[in-house]
Write a structure and sequence with these properties.
Number of helices: 27
Shape: flat
Number of strands: 11
Oligomer: single chain
Radius of gyration: 33 Å
Strand order of the largest sheet: 2-1-4-3
Largest sheet: 4 strands, mixed
Helix content: 40-55%
Low-confidence stretches: 328-336, 339-361, 593-597
Mean pLDDT: 80
Length: 691
């Protein structure tokens, strides 16, 4: 008879003694009672608690004991309250070496929410803040390396404790803020201190409206830009993150002013030369921060995007007609000026922002005006502006999990206007190639949208490279690509081919299923979404080779390659999995902040629901991994694989298999119906002469 599911066998260690194997009833037995059953003679059981021996080594509480798995190694340790009290006394002691060791241990334990609660309840945050405020006066006589190490551990512990969200950031004093800002403003400061100071300031700005104003007074953009010119990409990432936080939380009337200051300080060119074109590959977090900066910069255009032109404003009308004059090579029609103004006033009301300054630098900025094939400039400019805003998501909040920045937008001070000019010329060129009339307007815009999105997907590094990509995507090429893509769907429509396809499909689906399961066996790394992205936390999940168990566990850093099963401490039997849910149905997506409620994050979220009423929550790093995992989990449960990737792979593989099987029938017309069966012979008395 198998043991009850609530009983788990674990090993419990104690320093200097042999580990003991015991059984824990996760429902009936209290953790305190478990400690009393331990074979070591220890008095005062309330002074002890159980912790995991591997991984983050978190304390086990009554609430978390249900997460203990069979075969887990636990360690008997002093209780969180006792540990917090001892560390608090040691970091206030006069012994410098003892204080340093205490701060090292505190920095490690502060990531545990149980310990953090106890330490904060003992006014630990205030103690650390006072330590930071007085640390220069107290230890200025010590070696710089010693001082830097002590301060780094203090700031690390402070940041970890505040990250739990137990206390408000508003409780911090002005002197503490000035102290942290001082570390950022110093020209020469230890890298670890600078990293943590930047992270603390970013968290202040993001978590408190009042602290935003205080930080903005203490930190100047020029000082932050100086940190972008170092060789350490971690420091660069933290600096851009703080700039983004200040940008994001700034009042609307301050954002344009801040953007002007960043432009004057040459932020764009510094990022281009020292980050994007640096000698190091761009890491995922840096790519995310560049994407956020790109989004926030383009969002400055939202107000102009939503502003209607006042047809009675002569200055605005003059700008529009000057732009039109440039576009059409200065052609004039003195007799029809008023009529033309009246005709285009309605369209120009919606032209929220123009490119008059950029267009002056483009000598080839002109439109076709030949009879019925005239390209309607006003209407095209309006629709193209709307299209580019949709493609680049102007006005939307940055997506927490997106790294989709475009290097070319950092190559020009007026990147949007230049991009618009490139695209408006593309539109005019495509209009001519299609010999379009006014009735073809929507068709032309569809082609132009496809040209732009295909070119952006190639990640051009400059606007010149974008132009080159677009030249290769002319109207003829778009037709060819469409035809090629359509052939995989429309080539084989006769009944015999359809029947062959239906026979092949189960084999291909089984092939796709095996590929998905093999990928799950290799495993994937997932990032834990938190309030502070720079201190990234990762976890890894993979399927056992016999497809019976999901193994997962926390990692200190993103792995390079496959993670052994031995390092993954937790597991879920596949037989316990009840279902897989996605998107808004996921428990971890139901109560998220506005930033995380982004559509793209929802599209990458999925959860495994398993007995008894437990969940394992995922946010895939990209759409491909999302499809792989949701398909693989559905295959494990015997359900249909319904992802977009499965449909695409199925179409591709079936098309390839069909073409291979029909290779000998090339240029032969396959009849719609099988040939008729011949009439029966008059006699079956056939004679064969084998001699």
């Amino acid at each position: 008879m198998p043991p009850p599911s609530d009983i788990v066998k674990v090993a419990i260690e104690w320093p200097g003694a042999n580990a003991q194997l015991i059984e824990i009833d996760q429902v009936g037995t209290c953790i305190k009672l478990v400690i009393l059953l331990i074979y070591w003679s220890l008095s005062g059981s309330e002074q002890f608690a159980l912790r995991y021996a591997d991984g983050p080594q978190l304390y086990i509480t009554e609430q978390s004991r249900g997460e203990i798995k069979n075969g887990t190694i636990l360690r008997l340790a002093i209780s969180p309250a006792r540990a917090a009290r001892q560390l608090l006394e040691r970091i206030q002691s006069h012994g410098i070496d003892a204080r340093l060791e205490a701060l090292k241990e505190l920095a490690k334990l502060s990531a545990d929410p149980t310990f953090a609660t106890e330490f904060i309840n003992m006014e630990g945050i205030g103690t650390l803040a006072r330590l930071v405020e007085s640390v220069i006066k107290s230890f200025k006589s010590f070696e710089p390396c010693f001082f830097g190490e002590m301060l780094a551990f203090t700031l690390t512990a402070f940041l970890e404790l505040m990250d739990h969200g137990i206390v408000s950031w508003d409780l911090l004093s002005l002197s503490f803020i000035k102290q942290i800002a001082g570390y950022v403003n110093q020209p020469m400061v230890d890298v670890s201190i600078l990293q943590r100071s930047l992270a603390i300031l970013e968290s202040m700005v993001l978590n408190s409206h009042s602290l935003y104003h205080r930080v903005a007074q203490e930190i100047t953009v020029g000082q932050l830009i100086g940190h972008l010119q170092v060789s350490n990409q971690e420091i660069q990432t933290y600096a851009i993150a703080l700039i983004n936080a200040l940008f994001l939380k700034a009042p609307e009337d301050r954002r344009q002013e801040m953007a002007s200051t960043l432009a004057q300080k040459h932020l764009r060119s510094i990022i281009l030369n020292h980050v994007i074109r640096g000698n190091r590959p761009i890491k995922a977090e840096m790519a995310h921060q560049l994407y956020v900066l790109q989004v926030l910069t383009f969002n400055l255009l939202e107000e102009r995007m939503m502003t209607k032109m006042d047809p009675n404003d002569q200055a605005q009308r003059d700008i529009i007609f000057e732009l039109r004059r440039i576009a059409f090579d200065g052609e004039n029609d003195p007799t029809g000026t008023e009529k033309r103004k009246a005709m285009h006033t309605k369209d120009y009301k919606m032209l929220g922002f123009t490119v008059i300054s950029a267009s002056n630098s483009h000598s080839d900025f002109n439109f076709s005006r030949e009879d019925k094939h005239e390209c309607p400039f006003g209407r095209c400019a309006i629709e193209l502006t709307r299209m580019l805003c949709e493609i680049l998501q102007v006005g939307e909040l940055p997506n927490e999990g997106c790294n989709d920045y475009h290097p070319m937008f950092f190559t020009h001070d007026r990147a949007w206007e230049e991009f618009f000019c490139v695209c408006i010329q593309l539109l005019n060129k495509t209009w001519k190639e299609m010999r379009a009339t006014a009735e073809d307007f929507n068709k032309v815009m569809q082609v132009v949208r496809e040209q732009i999105t295909r070119a952006l997907a190639m990640k051009p590094s400059s606007l010149d490279q974008l132009k080159s990509k677009l030249r290769g995507l002319n109207y003829s090429e778009i037709l060819r690509l469409r035809q090629s893509e359509r052939m995989s769907q429309d080539d084989f429509q006769s009944p015999p081919i359809i029947e062959l396809r239906e026979r092949i499909q189960p084999e291909i689906l089984e092939l796709i299923k095996q590929q998905r399961l093999n990928r799950l066996c290799e495993g994937s790394c997932f990032r834990k979404l938190g309030n502070r992205r720079r201190q990234e936390k990762f976890w890894f999940c993979r399927l056992s080779l016999n497809h019976k168990v999901l193994h997962y566990g926390d990692l200190d850093e993103s792995p390079q390659g496959e993670v052994p099963f031995e390092l993954l401490s937790d597991k879920i039997p596949v037989s316990d999995i009840k279902s897989v849910v996605t998107g808004k149905d996921c428990p971890h997506m139901k109560e998220k902040s506005a930033l995380k409620q982004n559509k793209e994050v929802l599209e990458l979220a999925f959860s495994v629901l398993y007995d008894p009423d437990e969940t394992l929550n995922f946010v895939a790093p990209n759409k491909y991994e999302y499809c792989i995992w949701t398909d693989g989990l559905c295959a494990l449960l015997g359900r249909e694989m319904g992802s977009d990737l499965t449909r695409s792979d199925l179409d591709t593989l079936i098309s390839m298999e069909m073409k291979l099987r029909l290779l000998d029938l090339e240029n032969i017309t396959i009849p719609e119906a099988p040939p008729p069966v011949p009439k029966e012979p008059s006699s079956y008395n056939f004679t064969y002469n084998y001699s």
